[in-house]
Structure formats: structure tokens, C-alpha cells
């Protein structure tokens, strides 16, 4: 039986319960999940790359199949480097689907055997996004129900 390694790429600024939900679902399907935290300076992340990696590691500590890395390249180049031909993406709404479909096709045009698997979070996590969390933080809005408990201190005590 073939070893199934999948990459779950994203900015994870910060990781949310929605992301964790997708990681849990993917862990049932794949032998190894590589959570690839993108540098992505274009998005102007709230948290540094190092802090985002640290938070993802804390949030996924109990997942034996998860490895967390940083990445700075094209996703197809990373998939070649890691010998992983499966990309995991989460879908919350139709608007996500349109964007993710385009990205999946673009990646497939660069690497024919690269497959994108789309997973939906549970209904309770379907509305959660990192941007919602970031929009609440400047106002000290409650985020404890949106992010993993393991990173709550990191988020509340940010610089």
C-alpha cells in the first residue's frame, strides 16, 4: 500500500478551529499531513512567520501524523521537494470554492499529477476564518471559541 503524504498550505495567521477541523479530517484519510506555513508577505500577516509556525505546532501537538514547516516557494515546487502529490484545501462557502478551484487548476497546469482534495469543516466551524479572528483582536473581542485553546495566550499576549 502506498504511503499518502498531503500538504495543507496556508498563511495560518492565526491557526483557527476551522483549520484544526480540516487537519483532523485529513488525518483520517492520509498517512502524513504537512502543514506548510507560507511566508506570504503580500498578505501582511499580523503574526511573524516564526510565531505562526510556533502556534501551529502548539495547536497540532497531539496529532501524530502532522509535521509543520515553513515554505517560501511555489506550492508545486514544495510538493516536488516533499514528494507529496496531494494538496488539502478547506472550503467554507461558494466564494472559497471559486478561488480554490482556480488555484487547483493553476497548480495542476504546472504539475499534472498534483491532486487537490477539498474538505469542508464541520458546520460549527464553517464561519471561522483567520481574518475574522484578526478583526476581533484589536477590540479585545472574544476569540476563545474560534482558535485552539493551546494558542489562546499567544494571541491574547501578542506584541
List keywords for this structure.
6 helices, 5-stranded parallel β-sheet, 159 residues, globular, single chain, alpha/beta, Rossmann fold, 5 strands
Detailed description of the structure:
By secondary structure, this protein is an alpha/beta fold. It has one domain (5-156): Rossmann fold, CATH 3.40.50. The protein has 6 helices and 5 strands. It has helices at 17-29, 49-59, 75-82, 94-110, 130-136, 152-156, and strands spanning 5-10, 32-38, 66-71, 86-90, 115-119. α4 links the parallel β4 and β5 (115-119). The model has no long low-confidence stretch (mean pLDDT 93).
Sketch the major β-sheet.
Answer: 5 strands, parallel
Q: Number of folding domains?
A: 1
Beta-strand content bin: 15-25%
Write out the strand line-up for the largest beta sheet, numbering strands in chain order: 3-2-1-4-5
Q: Indicate the radius of gyration in whole angstroms.
A: 15 Å
- Shape, per Cα inertia axes: globular
What string, H for helix and E for strand, traces the elements in order? EHEHEHEHEHH
State the gist of this model.
This protein is of the alpha/beta class and 159 residues long.
Topology:
Blueprint: E1 5-10, H1 17-29, E2 32-38, H2 49-59, E3 66-71, H3 75-82, E4 86-90, H4 94-110, E5 115-119, H5 130-136, H6 152-156
Parallel strand pairs: 1-2, 1-4, 2-3, 4-5
Amino acid at each position: 500500500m502506498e504511503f499518502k503524504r498531503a500538504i495543507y498550505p496556508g498563511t495560518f495567521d492565526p491557526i483557527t478551529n476551522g483549520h484544526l477541523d480540516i487537519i483532523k479530517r485529513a488525518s483520517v484519510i492520509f498517512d502524513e499531513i504537512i502543514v506548510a506555513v507560507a511566508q506570504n508577505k503580500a498578505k501582511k500577516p499580523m503574526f511573524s512567520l516564526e510565531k505562526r509556525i510556533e502556534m501551529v505546532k502548539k495547536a497540532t501537538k497531539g496529532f501524530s501524523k502532522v509535521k509543520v514547516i515553513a515554505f517560501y516557494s511555489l506550492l508545486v515546487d514544495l510538493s516536488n521537494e516533499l514528494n507529496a502529490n496531494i494538496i488539502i484545501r478547506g472550503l467554507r462557502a461558494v466564494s472559497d470554492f471559486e478561488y480554490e478551484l482556480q488555484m487547483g487548476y493553476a497548480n495542476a497546469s504546472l504539475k499534472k499529477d498534483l491532486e487537490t482534495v477539498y474538505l469542508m469543516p464541520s458546520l460549527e466551524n464553517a464561519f471561522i476564518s483567520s481574518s475574522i479572528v484578526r478583526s476581533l483582536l484589536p477590540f479585545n473581542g472574544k476569540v476563545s471559541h474560534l482558535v485552539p485553546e493551546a494558542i489562546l495566550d499567544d494571541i491574547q499576549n501578542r506584541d
